[in-house]
């Protein structure tokens, strides 16, 4: 538990709930600092295999904190490289699932897209409304949204500030699945528990190689995949996983 986050351990799943209800979970510097601290601890904890980040029923997060940014000028933003801290969040090596209900706007949509995949409640609404404030996305939204849903929808959303509902977000490939709002957190924790039960090195390798698809060309990406695949044949868990299959039993992982 920190001032802006509720952190719970559900066996091998870390459940983080953004907790600034009066500001609809607007993401200020304190949220970022606390989230980085919690995420680093999660990444270093061998007992934790997957993380879920969620918000409230009304808002996953309604954006970066406009009140924090309002009085800043170019020199402040540029000299402090405002938002650069979020890059550290994206370097987390273990998986993070965003469980989104209600508004995921601006930085909220961007945080959800920084996670490895998004499970959405049927109440979820995604948008990049920064243009209405006479600015642009600043936490990677223009890039990640364009990768996720293609140029046409990304451009329309950034230029008009229009929100996408859960059904459209699923059709567009922004979210992996839509579930009833009342079941969102339990479904996300259940999904995270499935991931957490896998061999830890294989989890990291799968995350790393899917993410590589966004930075590499096809030939280079396929080569990268193959090398990581080969590397896993040097692990105890690969021996165990294949032996367990042949012997018709569940594998027991050592993480080595
Ligand atoms: N920053 C700071 N405070 C915010 C906020 C934000 N992004 N979003 C909401 N709040 C605050 C409101 O100011 C309000 O506070 P007060 O009670 O003190 O007035 C409180 O949360 C509740 O909000 P509303 O009264 O506006 O609630 P609503 O139900 O009428 O509307 C909403 C909900 C449509 C989400 C509306 O709050 C809204 O449009 N929020 C701003 C969305 C936005 O522009 N996000 C982008 C921010 S910029 C950004 O994120 C840059 C980037 O690229 C990272």
From TrEMBL:
The reply to whether Protein biosynthesis figures as a keyword in the UniProt entry is no
- Its Enzyme Commission number(s) read 4.2.1.17
Stored InterPro entries:
ClpP/crotonase-like_dom_sf, Enoyl-CoA_hyd/isom_CS, Enoyl-CoA_hydra/iso, Enoyl-CoA_hydra_C
* Keyword Lipid metabolism among UniProt keywords: yes
The record's listing under PROSITE patterns reads: ENOYL_COA_HYDRATASE
Write down the top EC class of this protein. lyase
Q: Which Pfam families match?
A: ECH_1
Q: What does the record give as the reaction this protein catalyses?
A: a 4-saturated-(3S)-3-hydroxyacyl-CoA = a (3E)-enoyl-CoA + H2O; a (3S)-3-hydroxyacyl-CoA = a (2E)-enoyl-CoA + H2O
Which top-level group of life is the source organism from? Bacteria
Keyword entries, A-Z:
Fatty acid metabolism, Lipid metabolism, Lyase
Q: Return the protein name.
A: enoyl-CoA hydratase
- Record organism: Sphingomonas guangdongensis
């Amino acid at each position: 538990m920190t001032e802006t986050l509720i952190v719970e351990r559900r066996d091998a799943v870390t459940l983080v709930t953004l907790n600034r209800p009066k500001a609809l979970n607007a993401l200020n510097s304190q949220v970022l600092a606390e989230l980085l601290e919690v995420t680093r601890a999660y990444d270093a904890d061998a007992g934790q295999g997957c993380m879920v980040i969620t918000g409230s029923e009304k808002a996953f997060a309604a954006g970066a904190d406009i009140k924090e940014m309002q009085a800043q000028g170019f020199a402040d933003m540029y000299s402090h490289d405002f938002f650069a801290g979020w890059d550290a969040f994206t370097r987390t090596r273990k998986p993070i699932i965003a469980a989104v209900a209600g508004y995921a706007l601006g930085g909220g949509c961007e945080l959800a897209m920084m996670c490895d995949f998004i499970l959405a409640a049927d109440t979820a609404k995604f948008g990049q409304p920064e243009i209405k404030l006479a600015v642009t996305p600043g936490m990677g939204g223009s890039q990640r949204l364009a990768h996720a849903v293609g140029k046409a929808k990304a451009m329309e959303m950034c230029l008009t500030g229009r929100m996408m509902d859960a059904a459209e977000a699923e059709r567009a490939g922004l979210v992996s699945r839509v579930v009833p709002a009342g079941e969102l957190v339990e479904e996300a924790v259940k999904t995270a528990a499935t991931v957490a039960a896998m061999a830890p090195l294989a989890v990291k390798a799968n995350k790393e190689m899917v993410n590589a698809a966004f930075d590499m060309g096809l030939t280079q990406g396929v080569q990268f995949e193959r090398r990581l695949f080969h590397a896993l044949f040097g692990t105890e868990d690969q021996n165990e996983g294949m032996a367990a299959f042949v012997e018709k039993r569940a594998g027991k992982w050592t993480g080595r």
